[in-house]
User: Fold these one by one.
Assistant:
Number 1:
Amino acid sequence: MHAYRSHTCADLALADVGQTVRLSGWVHRIRDHGGVLFIDLRDHYGITQVLCDGDSPVFAEVEKLRSEWCVRIDGTVKARDTDLINPKLPTGEVEVYIRDMEVLGAAEELPLMVFGDQEYPEETRLKYRYLDLRREAMQDNMKLRSDVVASMRQRMWDKGFREYQTPIITASSPEGARDFLVPSRLHPGKFYALPQAPQQFKQLIMVSGYDKYFQIAPCFRDEDPRADRSPTDFYQLDLEMSFVEQQDVFDTIQPVLAGIFEEFGKGRKVDDVWPQISYADAAKWYGTDKPDLRNPIKMQDCSEHFRGSGFAIFAKLLEQDGTEVRAIPAPTGGSRKFCDRMNAFAQKEGLPGMGYIFWREKTADAVAQELGITVKEAQAKLKSGEVKGGMEAAGPLAKNIGPERTEAIRTQLGLGVGDAAFFLGGKPKAFEGVAGKARVVIGDELGLTEQDRFAFAWIVDFPIYQRDDETGELDFDHNPFSMPQGGMAALEGDPLAVRGYQYDLACNGYELVSGAIRNHQPEIMFKAFELAGYGEDEVNKRFGGMVSAFKFGAPPHGGCAAGIDRIVMLLADEANIREVIMFPMNQRAEDLMMNAPSDPDNAQLRELHLRVVKEES
């Protein structure tokens, strides 16, 4: 018999009754039933119930066992009594009577329990991650992650791609985040960088004539942490293709990702149609470039209804250039209580408030005022049906702008009795972020956002440039390596009107994919950087290897990268990305388990020709 096991803890069934078996695993749970000890023995594959009583030669040793001790047991497989079968376990029809046991690894008092669903502080979970990872939910998440990556690889191979590895130690290259620098021992005073992405290398692979590349690529960025982003490193499905246009990239990656979500989405609906929405429209309709399309709310420009109106705040705002008033429809949100709650939400987000109108059945007071009768008479007419109450607009905005304008707004937004609309005004960039958050909150609170669905949208036509509000200088707004739509001719006109062949894929409010058709022509690249204030010498200094390669017959090429961590986070239905990363950093980019970052010793510093300057307190 094998030294540690003849079966895993998920293998045994009724067909094995009577066999002598050997199992190894961890003591998951112990139950003492009056001299009979029942133990749930757990390994990576499952759980088997083992038991021991006073007749067993190792009963005294089994009594000493505690949670999470690692043990090997030998025993006989027995069928459970019918009323003791556990249908929740694959091995629930059998149990193993212990005849011999060996403690492979005793455990001290546990800082966190593996059995059960107790909540522990994140610092405790990360410091003792090896225990946290033993929990069933974490085992499931990590197996899911591994299976997703394996499926991605196979799907890419099936599409004619080959996997190539790119360097981990390279030169610093601005990709929109801070680099992790690595000092060079052989070249004192110089530094390598960990790659933020394989961007330049995968483009060079295309120049080298390999046509279709992919990689499950580690990427390193010194970023501020968020719930959906690791502060140090992450993995992406990275791909690049030659002789392609934007739609070719979409047609390649869409079935790969759709297949992943169908395979691992546990029956949740995966949208067949992935609309293409311009960056400008996404901001206007959803307040974000990663909209959650499970939420049906689409914001609309209602500026004309407030221009010259009795609501002075909006009317005066609209006299300024570049301002507008945007409405957020809220079907079924037509109560003063809900409207007040959303107004308070806006105030928490740093705004003075959020205007609103809601529509309701006309009150007896309103009918009495219209007909010039008493409220009591109006109530009687409404009750008898002699007078139809109809609908009225309520709220401070409605009183200020009057019934004609409120009716025009209602008609434009397609709302009715029991519905509401919220309004924000000013320069769109100043309020779009809050408007987008409000849209999400409204959709969630009113039950409008469809759960159990993965809704995808391509965001396209990104602006390449932006102008700094303070300095007035032009700089890149998005990926500087994107081919401008219209090529060189587009760069001769208004830079702020230039759109790039750049695209993101949004799913359920998260950015899953980012990519572009690349700017592979040196003269167009030099011009694009020149507009942003980078001369030819600077471009050659920063991107010399790639620019040089483009002078030797570069093919048109493009690609994208899909964030594996976020994909698994969505599939696992987790709100925090650290739940699907095996050994993540905490919010302060610290590894509490391995004590990183750590202080180098003097010998290391001398070898690297470095000196640490202590920060002044």
Note: The chain has a mean pLDDT of 93.
Number 2:
Amino acid sequence: MAERVIGIDLGTTNSCVAVMEGDAPAVIPNRGGYKTTPSIVAVTEAGKRLVGHIAKRQAITNAENTVYAAKRLIGRKFNSPQVKNAIMTCSYGIVEGPHGDVRIKLRDKTYSVPEISSMVLQEMKVIAEDYLGETVSKAVVTVPAYFNDNQRQATKDAGAIAGLDVIRIINEPTAASLAYGFGKGIDKTVAVYDLGGGTFDISVLEIGSHGVFKVIGTTGDTFLGGEDFDARIIDWLVQGFLDEHDVDLRQDRMALQRLRDAAEKAKCELSSVRETEVNLPFIISAGRNEALHLQRVLSRDTLESLCEDLVERTIDICRQALVDAKLDVDEIEDVVLVGGMTRMPAIQLAVGDFFQREPNRGVHPDEVVALGAAIQGAALVEDKHEMILLDVTPHALGIMTFGSYFEELIPQNTTVPTSRTKVFTTSRDNQTAVKILVMQGESKKADENELLGEFILTGLRRAPKGHVEIEVTFEINTDGIVSVNAKDLETGQAQSIQVTATSGLTHDEVKQMMASAADYMVERRGDEQFEAARQEAETLMAQVDALFPDVERTVGGADFGRDAVQKAKATIERTREAIQRKDTATIKEQLETLSRTERMFRGVIGRS
């Protein structure tokens, strides 16, 4: 039997894990019974790592050591405008890493963003292993369709640190379309509108009844999502409080975290009610033991006016997606809503108005992406799932040319795998070497795009300006790996590079983080085993303890009775000492003795 592959939706706000159960994908609930887990990581005062619901619950009292929305920072350069925005609004510390990347400071330690994301992925791995009762090592992880290569590589690194072999990274809207169309035998052109906690994507696909899922076009914004809607509510609350009390709540990290929670709660409530009250007593102290309270009513109309431009931005991107796909609105046969933000009535209305049809709400917005990832995972390791997935490159690929211009070789939305070739000529007299800078992006100016890699083609023959012709070939495989080859057409002199996007981490750093994460898992599994043994031992000890009076009354006069009671008390004492020492092996040894003693005592009392 093929190894089980889990599908993970690594979300900005929440993450979800799924697996194929027979011929259908199923979401795996965590220990609390929830199907999604908050993508939140915290470090306590004692240095203990918390992930998920437990991290979210302590976020207010430990705001500066609790990380949320790390996905918005993954694979980004520290000096990018998005990171500057995050530094202004986040309650945790964001600092520059050694490679110009982003690092997060928690307590006295600095973590890379892939490392933080790996903690969430590791939690998903544990949830799956507990449910399946077996070790899981392979996963398909989803990313926003508009992620660039560096962001994708950073996500892959996060998987590796978590102890997962990420066999494929797939786009979230594409994964959602798999769950929507899998096994249904439909022929349709659909648009997947995916607005999550931190990112927005719109993908247009052709779904064929024979299991072919072909992406025609995709576009998006990797810094537009629920976090921005929450920020508008926070701004509204902060401004109202400032006007009323002349106190800026942004200066207090704990107050800011309470505002974040209240804003998210209010936004969710306003999807089903017309107005809601935000009530935060003792939000801040005004000195002289005087506490100030925040109490305001937020209506759905106010929320919609605060966020009108954000909704409109998503519609502008939808308009661009149709232009890129060369389709008219009436050629879209269904619109699938994905992501928690699509529960907002204003979004459903805007999408319906733009696409001139009622959006399809038949998929679960929080679970559909993980389900699609699980379907893809099974298809990659099993032959029985006849499914072909044809995705596109979300950004144009090319090289920097003379004058710092960007020359596109592979246009945006080209189906992968693919290869393209173009001939360039040298620009200087007697030039014997040329530097090839491989770039990704949509701007005609090279410096506004992402540099993926560079190499030098040497040994060119000396020639007057413009006389050496160099053939440059770009190739992208199904995993999105880019290879670039440059060749002097006259001499045949060639040089090539496999462009490995950078996550901001070196190979050695990733290996070191993998080892550290593996140590954490050994410790965690050890703690879990101790906890399970402790609970079982304490239950048995309490049961034996409760039987002592009856046993002593029944057989306490006999030598064997006194002996049995003494032995039982010694066993309880040994078990208590083992619990104090956290000696799991000894506790497990005593469990059998305690169980035997409990059965024997009940037998003695029963016979009397």
Note: The longest strand covers residues 275-285.
Number 3:
Amino acid sequence: MNPSPARLQVKIGGMSCSFCTMTIQKALGRMDGVAAVHVSLAHEEALIEYDPARRTPTELRDTLRQLGYTVRDPDKVRAFEEQQAELRKARDLLLWGAAFSAVSLAIMIASWLGVQQPWFRPVMIALALLTVFAAGWHILVMAAHSLRRGILNQHVLLEFGAFAGLIGGGIGLFNPVFPAADFFSVAIFITTYHLLSGWASLLVRTRASAAVQKLLALQPATARRVLPDGREEEVPVEAIRPGERVRVWPGESIPVDGRVVSGASAVDQSLVTGEPIPVEKLPGDEVIGGSINQAGTLIVEVTQVGEQSFLAQVARHLEEARAMKPGILALVDVVLQRYVPAVLAFGGLAVLVWTLGAWLVTGQPDWTRAVFAALAVLVMGYPCALGMASPLAMIRGGGEAAQKGILIRSGEAFQIFKDVRVVVLDKTGTLTRGKPEVVETVVGVQYSVFSGQPSEPDTEHCILNTELLQLAASAEYPSEHPLARAIVAYAREAGVDLFRAEDFMAEPGKGVTAVLGGRRVRVGRLDWVTEGRIPPEVAAQAEQQAAQARTVSAVAVDDRLIGLIAIADTIKPEARSAIQQLRGLGLEPIMLTGDNRHTARAVAAEVGIETVFAEVLPGEKAAKVRELQGGGRRVAMVGDGINDAPALMQADVGIAIGAGTDIAIESADVVLVGGRLDAIVDAFHIGRASYRKTVQNLWLAFAFNGVGVPLAVTGLVPPVWAMVAMIASVSTVLLNSFGGKLLPRR
């Protein structure tokens, strides 16, 4: 019998481009016993599925090290600290490179103006060597590993250009045909530019990894363990074991997954289902670590701890989704696959033209011109504008998006948005407001709570909506329950004056009782208010409200049921319009929620969504998104809660509602700061237009490099003109990036 496949999650250091993901996938995928390899460049992670009988984790990690990458500490906190240290190191290297560039530029300008000093030459040599072999040493190492594996990427092209500058400068020390200062400066400038790109990329990846850190921080650090003799002791949550009991006071986070053995309370577990209305917990009910105990005190028997707890499982789902997220080969990397070999080919052509070609024409090879031309090709070939094409377009798109209250945090989002065909939306907090509100009051025939029979209508027992609200809100005023707060807020908005409640008493999971002006008022669950004797007519009314995804609170005065108050999480006013606009763009909207099917379908019908997946747990949400991604379809996911985080990470484009949790926001590529649902449409237009700008920029960059590289073959292009061409190409790309409009007129 074969053992079940195992999974190894690995944090990888040293990844820099789409080629790295392909290299790792190929190297590990070819190993015997490895079933699947998922690599995330954005988060520098790999998820490896393997047969533990044929491969060990050590062998897999050693293979990564042999490829030239580092394997980070598996401890999440230490791995995060390592990333922070790498970011600080990249920043320091960039500062050194910038300082070297500033000094070399000053020396070059002085030389052009006719100022010469004997120390110029040794300083330029030192600056060039320090930049390439000190500040840029890690780039040189990665380029060497890439060449050894037959991969031609931007690191390789950079080093060819940098070494061309060093060699040209070195020759210039003995041959005045080669402008030494210009060549050395080119080596400094292009290496510093590469350091800038690497620092910016690492900054994005480091910030993105904070989601898991924040998620695990939700679990309290300590718990109150209840000892057999009834005493309590506060201990680290790691010390708690299954079977032990803990006490949770009102307002505290529940520290463990467990089962209520004593007490009753309302618990906010929206992190699981996304549903904003708290769930009443009584003895025997399950509770989840990280949820908030709102009302009564609970004694909880621990059932799951450590890696088996809910929050740890969500963190694992989040990490797996991050690694299994479909990768894209960045457009610039696609171009570099063809561009780098072309530049190297032109460099070789330059040598052939001025050696073999010159010999055939003049009978003598021109080695000086051949070397100069080859070096000029490599210098001219470094794609400065090519590297700026995508960032400048994204900066423009990001700036325009920010004006619309949209934060686009991921470079991949700009490229993928145009290909999205399915938009998956969470319900609570996304399509709805995410908080309970009174939507209807029901008054009518009076019923005796004890007989369950209708009383004869008379003036004394006639009740109005205002009176119903006044009595219910007055009784609920001392309560902290979210449903009570909703009733009180609605009454205040209606301008209703409240009575002073006396003898207030709250029964967790049931409702409240208070004396108002000598009358005993009860507000709460219908079966509790009527003591289990619900008249058929009232039951029908309550069922009708439930069919509309509403929660019913019953109100009774003395022994009479006087009315019902319907409370619901109301739909955002722009939700239906946003769904229609998505359909108009050819996108298919789908609802994916942890809420019950009945409520989900009611909300979906109201906003115009046909496909609904309900009662889906956080880990299952990510799996459902992966299922929708089958066949290469690009999927966007919109959500706001912790339970949405794995799906947001898994989606090709994760979109978080700005009013949502930090975990959701950190897991997303796009954040709708204002919470407007129709901003998804603006984000789609901006992403698509920014990608179009990127393509235009690439063509403009090639207009310079495509002309400059062949000209350099002639040997007539000095390094300083190569830098001038680089400046001109970047300026053109800059003007194009910030010209025109990204959003269509409405």
Note: Confidence is low (pLDDT under 50) at residues 445-462.
Number 4:
Amino acid sequence: MTNRHLYITLLAILGFTVDGTAQSHQAPNVPRLVVSITIDQLRTDYLEAFTPLYSDVGLKRLLSGGRVYVNASYPFAHVDRASAIAALVTGTSPYYHGIVGNQWLNRETLRPVGCVDDKRFAGLLTHEMTSPDGILTSTLGDELKVATGGKALVYAIAPYREAAVLSAGHSADCALWIDNVYGDWCTTTYYTKLLPTWVSSFNKSNAPGRKISGAVWEPLYDVTGTYNYYLNTDNNKPFRHKFTGDYRFDSYKESALVNADVTDMAGHCIVSTGMGTDMVTDLLCLTYYAGTFGHQRVTDCQMELQDTYLRLDRELARLMAFTDSRFGAENVLYVITSTGYSDVEPADYDSFHIPTGTLNMTRTAHLLNMYLGGIWGQDAYVESTYQNQIFLNHKLLETRKISLGEATTRAQELVAMMQGVRNVYTSLQLIASQSPQTEKTRNAFYPQRSGDIIIEAAPGWRVLNEDTQQSQVSVASFMQFPIIFYGAGTPAERMGEAVTIDRIASTIARAIRIRAPNACSSEPLF
């Protein structure tokens, strides 16, 4: 055989081998639509306890057919709705993304500001002025937009402003939430100069404001009023709630009925915008509610909470049935998890001889001023307090040539001796710390939005600010919640390993073959 014939033969063999190898190792299809669902205050114990009430096509379908991580947690302390959702879409903690809570204290004005407040951007069908610029890193939606050159569609829908805007991120096509005054689906001029026509048409007949006067929340089925999971069965009775008064929409958004509005708007958004109709992956972020009605104690609304999970099951079933019929289950990836907290319920610890007490932040500030005044001369060294944080007067310290490190160390020494204080951290200590013992507190901290002194009260103690009447109970107990991946070829499996939610963003990014958000250093779950 001549060299020429040998060369041609080798090329043919190599070509066949490469071709065969490529065919045998084809990557799975990328989902056409990712539906990321955050369920506010979803708890594993309730999720599993109410299983007898569910259909086979909602929560049972997700739990049996999905990849379910049953032991999930947040890698930072003091989780609330805003900090949780920001962590989910950025894949990192408040130490990097900056959303330390629903609100924080503005150091310039010494007034609380909302995490998405922004006077530069007016609202559309709302008086609230809003933007996502409080998020200091990229989000999953942002990276999807970058990777597709802006072709991917990214929408977020939630009952609450901060949930919608933080889920949407900086580059989304739109974020929609329910206005507290008129009950319309609304947005901000940050995303669009005019309200989309499909939103306007939906509002005309389906906005909560059009039906609130006739809305009644009562048990979906009779069984809801008889089945009872709770130890305390005194409140095992039917309920009937209507929504009236100036705060009717606030109340409505803390009821099970609001989840149907989210599903309705999600379906309308998918159809009207053409999401999932091409080969470019789109992202739809939804927020549902699974907390107690009106933030009451569970013992005061047991039947309502059971009905909330039953209705949640129905809405998830309705949403999945819609996407199945439109795209096919293999083309949609569902990712479901919780905000990882629940409203702290007041407990009468005194009556049961359980250690408790009140840590008064206003009095703590006065004592600290007296203590520091005895060292450096009387003055207002404490500028303000907010929640469990103390803010020192930086300008005064600079004028008196007192270093922040010395001032915070002195303050820490005094506060640590007070009754009801479990731990005290300084801002400089948290910035420099790499200790596993302080990791969760450090992850919840952001220097420009957090105090100079962070106080951790003893479990069961109440932190009270007399000036603002802010009050919160210190609770360190673990709340179990799941992470569920369903659809798009994800195999069904129940995983018992402990995982943190900062790995969700990198997992989705890998599934749709884009870069993870720019502050997400956590590896994918699978």
Note: Residues 62 and 486 are 6 Å apart (CA to CA).
